[in-house]
Specification:
Elements: H1 6-10, H2 16-22, E1 29-36, E2 41-44, E3 49-54, H3 56-61, E4 74-80, E5 83-89, E6 95-99, E7 107-112, E8 116-122, H4 129-142, E9 145-151, H5 159-169, E10 174-177, H6 185-189, E11 198-203, H7 209-217, E12 240-244, E13 250-253, H8 267-270, H9 272-278, H10 295-301, H11 307-319, H12 327-339, H13 342-359
Parallel strand pairs: 3-5, 8-9, 8-11, 9-10, 11-13
Antiparallel strand pairs: 1-2, 1-4, 1-12, 2-3, 4-5, 6-7, 12-13
Length: 368
């Protein structure tokens, strides 16, 4: 197995917080999950890169899929020969989940402890404002800072209009536009990478995530395929894996996901204007469908709010944990989300401010 020193382990983003938490379990060894396979994980410790499996006790005590280890997790292990056993997952600072196929009510972890998440969407047939709104809602709820990445700009018939539409729903997130002719990919992504930073790419199959990561890593570590018929990319990544990035920190590749369940979504960030309008509705528990005195419906009728955006909000609200709650319970849930990770919110705001100052008013993504 590859020998890993503590200095090399820090390349995988370990921070003082996790090093301190690990001292609470002196009989076990701190590791980070760098890849996930069926029933097995690849981890990195101070001494080595090893295969690992979940202990019987952890498996028995874990009631939900989202509590199982995933790529990006810091875990405590014991090493038995060339195989490690995972005994516990340290407290996460962010988590992305998606609905597990065929398992009602279950959410599957995708990546954890992510600082910046690149939400990828191509500007051809994959383009969908509803999907990007879904990604943004889930990203804000996770605790990571979202950055929108629009790929295949060379295939877009009206780039300015497409970017304008995305800007309108972006919640002030940065937007990067990329094409196959770009020669400054590293320059566009460099501001988001630094020592100890964990970045992840999320998006549908075939939008170019693996190609982008290969470019950033400077080597072909992830297999890619040619574009299929109708400009559609082909699904390549089947697992989740983390790689140290020459720009600093680490990057996580994820399988293509056309849809992510919105059971955990922050609608107040992505749909702030709708929630602001809702405060002026006659009834506190207004559903914005046919109630009299609904400020949201009035805004639609007056052309101040797009009907498509309201429909998207309703769909995500139906899927999210707001569904079935009273107005008071909804406010409590929003407050919990607002303050659940104050450090992450402050970090996101500081990151956005510093990046804005670096850009000095330039068009997001450097333009085309």
């Amino acid at each position: 197995m590859e020998v890993i020193t503590l200095h090399q382990l820090k390349r995988y983003g370990v921070s003082e917080r996790f090093l301190a938490e690990a001292t609470l379990h002196p009989e076990e060894t701190l590791a980070r999950v760098t890849a996930q396979y069926r029933g097995k994980y690849k981890i990195v410790t101070e001494q080595a890169a090893l295969l690992a499996e979940v202990s019987g006790k952890l498996r028995y005590e874990t009631e939900e899929l989202a509590q199982y280890p995933t790529v990006g997790d810091y875990v405590m292990v014991t090493v038995e020969g060339e195989l490690a056993v995972i005994h516990r997952v340290l407290r996460r600072k962010s988590l992305f989940v998606r609905r597990a196929v065929g398992m009602s009510g279950q959410a599957q972890p995708v990546a954890s402890n992510v600082d910046v998440v690149f939400l990828c969407m191509s500007l051809n047939q994959n383009f969908s404002l509803n999907r990007m709104e879904r990604y943004l809602s889930i990203a804000w709820d996770s605790g990571a800072t979202p950055v929108i990445v629009l790929t295949k700009a060379d295939l877009c018939e009206d780039l300015a209009q497409a970017v304008s539409q995305v800007e309108a729903i972006s919640c002030f997130s940065d937007i990067l536009t990329l094409s196959m002719f770009d020669e400054d990919i590293h320059d566009k992504f460099e501001p988001y990478f630094s020592k100890g930073q964990t970045c992840a790419f999320i998006g549908s199959s075939g939008v170019g995530k693996s190609t982008l990561i290969n470019c950033l890593l400077g080597t072909q570590v992830i297999s890619t395929q040619e574009i299929g018929k109708g400009d559609k990319g082909r699904h390549t990544t089947t697992g989740r894996e983390m790689f140290p990035c020459p720009l600093g920190g680490v990057v996580i590749d994820t399988p293509g996901m056309r849809e992510m369940g919105a059971e955990s979504a922050d609608l107040s960030q992505t749909f702030g204007e709708i929630e602001d309008l809702a405060r002026h509705c006659r009834f506190r528990d207004c559903t914005h469908t046919n109630e009299p005195g609904c400020a949201v419906l009035a805004a639609v009728e007056q052309g101040r709010l797009d009907q498509r955006r309201l429909d998207s909000y309703r769909k995500l609200e139906h899927e999210s944990s707001y569904e079935g709650l009273s107005s008071k319970e909804v406010e409590v849930k929003k407050a919990e989300r607002m303050f659940k990770e104050v450090g992450s919110i402050k970090q996101a705001r500081r990151f956005a401010k510093e990046h804005y100052q670096r850009k000095q008013g330039k068009f997001p993504g450097g333009g085309m």
